[in-house]
Amino acid sequence: MAANEPLHLQDDGTGPSPPGGLLDLLSVAAIVLDTRGRIVFWSPQAEEVFGYTAQEALGQYAAMLVRDEHRDLVIRLFAEVMSTGASWAGAFPIRHKDGSTRLVEFRNMRLLDDLGDTYALGIAADRTMLQRVETDLALSQRLVSQAPIGIALLDTDLRYLLINPALERINGIPAADHIGKHPHDILTFLDVGTIESALRQVLLTGTPVVDQYTVGRTPADPDHDHAWSVSYFRIESSSGRVIGVANSVVDVSERHRATTEADRARRRLAVIADASARVGTTLEVEHTAKELVDVAVPDLADIATVDVLDDVLAFRPTTPSHDPGPEMFRALAVAAAYPTHATTAALAAGDLAAYGADRLITRCVHSGAPIVVSHADSNDLQHIARDAEAAATFAQAGVHSYLAVPLIARNEVLGVLDLLRARNPLPFDEDDVLLAGEIAARAAVAIDNARWHQSVRNTAETLQRSLLPGHPPSLTGLDVASLYQPAMATHEVGGDWYDVIPLAGDKTALVVGDVMGNGIDAAATMGRLRTATCAFADLDLAPDEVLRHLDKITQGLEHYIATCIYAVYDPNDQRCHIANAGHLPPVLDTADGRRRLLDLPTGAPLGVGGVPFHTNFFELRPGDRLILYTDGLVETRHHSIDDRLHTLLRTLDEPRRPLGDTCHWLLHALRHPDDHDDVALLVAEATPVPARHTPHEHPAA
């Protein structure tokens, strides 16, 4: 081998090591003395310890290195080593070249060469440096062994060299079973591929990985999740040689559980806040139920349904809770987090089904308490689904957990919120029961309010429709179509009405009115005014006289006013006499395509009193149409009434339709489904009759 050819490390690890190892750090010196005590060998490190160069030390007596007061002791110790061959070790003060005294750790022994000559070998190191290294090693060893955090050292091939007791406890595997093995041999319970990749990256780059969050289960506690904060650091010698990588593991399971619980609490609050904002926005039972299932999916369940007792919806006495009999449920809403056949196993909205006493939904309404099946098997599904076929569908869809929460309002069980999990792998737990109970309690009140509102509204609408006229009678010289549209379900029925009254002499009275207010009282007031209008019409009074009498009657009613248009059409002279009590102007749509709002004195609403009414007239020839309506047709919250009246005229620019179709067209074109007011609409078209002579009158503007 050439003198300058580098030596390479063998496969077994033997060979030269780069400078900077422990011996270099300690600066261990070697000195050889002959039998007379003269220095015959002097290592380079000896110069660092004693301060003398080799040229200065070789050939000199070793006594030069000690002070006079220690010389006799040194000579005696040297003689013992040379005569007996016994080694001597200990600390001894030496005199440094600079004149100072330093304590040096010695190891002295006798040497024998092949010629039989004897020598003394002294191994020396600075005592202060040695003590510092010993202290550091002791501290490191103590910290590693007693640290509450897990610590491991792996070599450059990622084999365990050392693990401390804390990591032994964390992993649940003895320390001896780690040594010489790789992480993938030990950490089978974690994502070890990611761990080893991070370790290799740290070895390669030297960039540490700090506070990496890991969650998993260990052989020490296989039934519970634990969380660890893991850090990786590359370990190097003082010369920069890579020794391996250190791994520290801090158990942060308590913090993880607290964070998880806080996250769940935030989720619960978010769902409750969402339910508060989204459930109960209308007074429709079905719509409120749909809002409830939409809130529950997907945050709480994969599939949610709302089923209400049919007796509750019909306001029939409900079955006593102690009665074990079946119950009839009506499905109100169903929702799923994703497309699934499981929804076909649930009742469609509006369907009725009888559930026996063995069904969990029936037990839920009878007990008034939540029912949770954390892990639902095939037998459980038989008691959850409505029949065996539905249970099989649930099983195929992967339904594995079930929760039923009663809908209770005013101490009455209305029905059940059913929740199912299929793709969500977590079973329902007590936190889910509390959360579902919170949103169900809020929704139950909204559903109860909606069913009571709908009941009152249905009563008012029934009364309203019963007070309105039926099919118009056969009239001379006039065709009539009418339409009544109540307000949307979230609002109460108002007091809008219309009437068509045949009069003597082939004449016809046309009436449209609107009682201010809503509900049953408004409908009843409307019925009284309609009855009075018919009575006054039979007296053949002028329109302003009819309104004057109605005004007196309305003043006698409690806190009610009404607007009204009263018109009398005489087909013999083709004239229409009309008076207005605070109502919107009618539309005259002539046969030649001209359309205008009649310019009538507005007058005051009925019930105000003290304001006179005026009768005007206009010509209504065959083919001409008179359109009477209430304000629900044109008024909105976002447009002025003038704009809406012009919109009404523009809507009539469409090609003419039959009278009935015209009513529906105007309603469709002008009124939004969510508008909050009723609409009464009356369209009359003059038809030809034999001409008759009538006194000359001046037409209205």
Topology:
Elements: H1 22-26, E1 29-33, E2 39-42, H2 44-50, H3 54-57, H4 68-84, E3 88-95, E4 101-112, E5 118-126, H5 127-146, E6 150-155, E7 160-163, H6 165-171, H7 175-178, H8 183-186, H9 192-205, E8 209-218, E9 221-236, E10 242-251, H10 253-278, H11 285-296, E11 303-309, H12 310-313, E12 327-336, H13 342-345, E13 352-355, H14 360-367, E14 371-373, H15 378-384, H16 388-396, E15 401-409, E16 412-421, H17 430-467, E17 478-485, E18 494-502, E19 508-518, H18 520-537, H19 543-555, E20 562-570, E21 575-581, E22 587-589, E23 595-597, E24 615-619, E25 625-629, H20 641-651, H21 659-670, E26 679-686
Antiparallel strand pairs: 1-2, 1-5, 3-4, 4-5, 6-7, 6-10, 8-9, 9-10, 11-12, 11-16, 12-13, 14-15, 15-16, 17-26, 18-19, 19-20, 20-21, 21-24, 22-23, 22-25, 25-26
Helix pairs in contact: 10-11, 10-17, 11-17, 15-16, 17-18, 18-19
